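User: Here's a structure from my thesis project, written as C-alpha cells. My advisor, Dr. K., wants to see whether a designed sequence matches the one we expressed. Can you design one independently, without my sequence as a hint?
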C-alpha cells in the first residue's frame, strides 16, 4: 500500500525527470503512432529497445499535459490494486485526461483499471517489457479495446541518423556489427548485450514461465543465436540437448519468440499442416546481440547479413516465409494474406554462387507467377533476366532505406 502523499511525490518526481531528460533520436515509429481515442495504445517490444524513450517523445510532442507513471520505480514496489483508488484521486486533482503508464502490467488487475479509464473517456498509453506484457495476451484482458504497435532496436536509417553517417557499404557493415540497441550503440561495451541476453532468458522467460532447467534454456538459446539463418526443428533440438520431450523444446522456442529474442520463419506451403511439420529458420532480434553472444568461433557474415535483411522485413511484414523446393529463396513476404515480394539475400555474388542464387529466385517467381524479385547484396548492383523474369540486385544500404 502506498500513502497518498508518497504517490503524489513520486508522480511529481518522475514528471521532473522527464522534463530534464534528453529523449535522444526521434524514433521512426513516432509519427506512425495513432492518435489516442477510445482504444488504449500498447507499445510492445524487446527489453531495452527504447519503449520508454518513445513514450517520452510521444508525451513531449503530442500530450505535454499527460500524467506519466513508471511502475518499475522502486518506491512503487508496494503498490497494490487498491492503490489505484489513490491514483484516481491524483488524476482528479490534477485534471489529467491522458494517462501514460510504464510497466503497469506488474500490478495485479491492471487490465481492469485500464479498461475502466477507457470507459471513463481517458486516453491511455501502456508500454512494458515482454516479461509481463505481451500483445498476444491482451485480446481477452482488454476485450479488444487496444491498438498494439511493435518497437524494435534501431533500424539502419535510425542508426546512421544517430551516428551521423551517410548511407554506404561502410556504414552498413558498421550497423551489421553493432546492431541497433541504443545503449550499446552509445557505450560499445559488450557487457551490455551479455547482460541483456541473460536478463531476457532469466527475467522474461525462466521467471515468467517458472522454468526450472535454466541451464538447458541458456544452452539452447546460445545454440540458436549461434546458428541464425539455419533451419531448426523441435525433434533435432530435443536430441542435441537431451531434453525429455519435444513439446518442452517447442515451449522454450515459443517463449523465446514471444519475448522477441528470436524469430522462427516457416517454410512456405499452402498446407498449414506441412508448414508446421517442416523445419523453421531461426533469426535473432539484433545482429549486435549475435556478435556478442554467439558461441561460434567462425565469422559467418553471410548468415548475419541474412538476419539483418530479415529484421528489415519483419518491421514491415507480419507474414514471412522461406521458399524451398528444388532451389531456395530466402524470404517470401505476404501482405494481408497475399503474396507481396520475393527477396533473395547474398553477401557477395561470385561465380560459385551466382547460378544457385538466381535459380532459387527464378523458381520462386515462377511458382507465384510474379515478374520481378529482389536480390540484396552487401555492395553489388546489377540486373539479371531469365525465363522472362527480372531480378534486381540492390546493395543493402539502398534496400534498407526504401
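Assistant: Designed independently from the structure alone:
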Amino acid at each position: 500500500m502506498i500513502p497518498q502523499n508518497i504517490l503524489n511525490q513520486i508522480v511529481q518526481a518522475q514528471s521532473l525527470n522527464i522534463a530534464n531528460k534528453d529523449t535522444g533520436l526521434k524514433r521512426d515509429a513516432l509519427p506512425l503512432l495513432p492518435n489516442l481515442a477510445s482504444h488504449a495504445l500498447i507499445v510492445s517490444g524487446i527489453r531495452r529497445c527504447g519503449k520508454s524513450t518513445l513514450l517520452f517523445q510521444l508525451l513531449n510532442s503530442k500530450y505535454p499535459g499527460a500524467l506519466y507513471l513508471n511502475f518499475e520505480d522502486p518506491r512503487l514496489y508496494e503498490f497494490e490494486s487498491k492503490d489505484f483508488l489513490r491514483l484516481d484521486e491524483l488524476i482528479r486533482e490534477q485534471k489529467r485526461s491522458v494517462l501514460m503508464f510504464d510497466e503497469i502490467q506488474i500490478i495485479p488487475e491492471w487490465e481492469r483499471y485500464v479498461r475502466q479509464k477507457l470507459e471513463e473517456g481517458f486516453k491511455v498509453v501502456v508500454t512494458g517489457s515482454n516479461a509481463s506484457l505481451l500483445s498476444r495476451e491482451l485480446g481477452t484482458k482488454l476485450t479488444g479495446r487496444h491498438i498494439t504497435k511493435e518497437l524494435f532496436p534501431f533500424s539502419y536509417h535510425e542508426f546512421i541518423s544517430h551516428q551521423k553517417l551517410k548511407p554506404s557499404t561502410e556504414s552498413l557493415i558498421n550497423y551489421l556489427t553493432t546492431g541497433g540497441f541504443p545503449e550499446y550503440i552509445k557505450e560499445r561495451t559488450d557487457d551490455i548485450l551479455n547482460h541483456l541476453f541473460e536478463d531476457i532468458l532469466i527475467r522474461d522467460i525462466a521467471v515468467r514461465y517458472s522454468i526450472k532447467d535454466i541451464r538447458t534454456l541458456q544452452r539452447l538459446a546460445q545454440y540458436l543465436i549461434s546458428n541464425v539463418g539455419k533451419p531448426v526443428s523441435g525433434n533435432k533440438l530435443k536430441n542435441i540437448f537431451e531434453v525429455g520431450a519435444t513439446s518442452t523444446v517447442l515451449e522454450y522456442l515459443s517463449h523465446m519468440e514471444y519475448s522477441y529474442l528470436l524469430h522462427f520463419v516457416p517454410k512456405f506451403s499452402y498446407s498449414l499442416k506441412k508448414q508446421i511439420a517442416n523445419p523453421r529458420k531461426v533469426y535473432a532480434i539484433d545482429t549486435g546481440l549475435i556478435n556478442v553472444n554467439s558461441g561460434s568461433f567462425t565469422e559467418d557474415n553471410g548468415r548475419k547479413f541474412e538476419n539483418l535483411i530479415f529484421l528489415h522485413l519483419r518491421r514491415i511484414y507480419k507474414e514471412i516465409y522461406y521458399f524451398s523446393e528444388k532451389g531456395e529463396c530466402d524470404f517470401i513476404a505476404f501482405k494481408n494474406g497475399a503474396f507481396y515480394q520475393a527477396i533473395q539475400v547474398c553477401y557477395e555474388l561470385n561465380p560459385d554462387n551466382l547460378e544457385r542464387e538466381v535459380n532459387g529466385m527464378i523458381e520462386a517467381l515462377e511458382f507465384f507467377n510474379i515478374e520481378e524479385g529482389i536480390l540484396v547484396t552487401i555492395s553489388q548492383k546489377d540486373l539479371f533476366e531469365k525465363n522472362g523474369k527480372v531480378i534486381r540486385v540492390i546493395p543493402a544500404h539502398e534496400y534498407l532505406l526504401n
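When you compare it with your expressed construct, this may help: The mean pLDDT is 93.
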